[in-house]
Design brief:
2 domains, 271 residues, Arc Repressor Mutant, subunit A, Immunoglobulin-like, eleven-stranded antiparallel β-sheet
Amino acid sequence: MKDLLHPSLLQINYLMTLEKIEKKRGCVGTVADICGVSHGPVSRFFKECVNYGYLTEQYTFTEAGTRALRMYERILQVTQSYLTRLGVSEESRQESLRQLIENVDYELLLSITRSDTQVKKDTTISQESSTPNFLEKVLERGNYEVGIALHQVNRTGGPRLSMAHQGFEHIAVIRNNSRGSWLELTICPVHGISRIDGKDMTGWLSSLKYENHGQLCEVDLRANKVRIPLSACRFTRSSHGNIKGMIMITVTCTAGKAHMPESTALLTFWM
């Protein structure tokens, strides 16, 4: 997986189309016409695949190329199924698919979709995990401390802690009461070095959005606390009974007058 070329969704379609057509001579033009693009992008990508060992000079698949294509098809299938289970509308599903395929590390993406499938199979934590009263079946009413971690969502390397990990205390609180169930995070300062003058910088979280059924919802920042409804989270249970929750979030920070660009992270918490 680490050595797998990470093409765009459109480039994966180039490869799937190439496999389907019988006419290999002039295949660049045929693939371009079928995919509705000009010849240049297809030609450049196929040459990259030749250099990577996926295609021969005649644009036929090598053994490595066939294995890679099967993996791409598998990733597409499980990601599409994941978006369907989340309830993402058909209108926005293709764009959500493109974002996940092109921007999320494959191992992390497969881990997310496997975890979601496990939730569906679990006899105790099943579809109730997406409803407000889910925790009533698992926890008594009250407050519970949980550990959290935020990992990068990118296409290179394995899962690594995100810069956003610095922006929160690493112990959060689950609040489960008659008013609802939330994951409550405490904001703390983010420290870094300016790329302009090398000075130490201190920033604070300025916004947080979470993904809920394919839509981004922004939370209120109150007294250095943010709350994410547990109904938006996905849950899995280990063979030992431990429960892990996951949710995709997008955050921005400010340092003085500077605003850091939005970054997306996978927030994980465990009980």
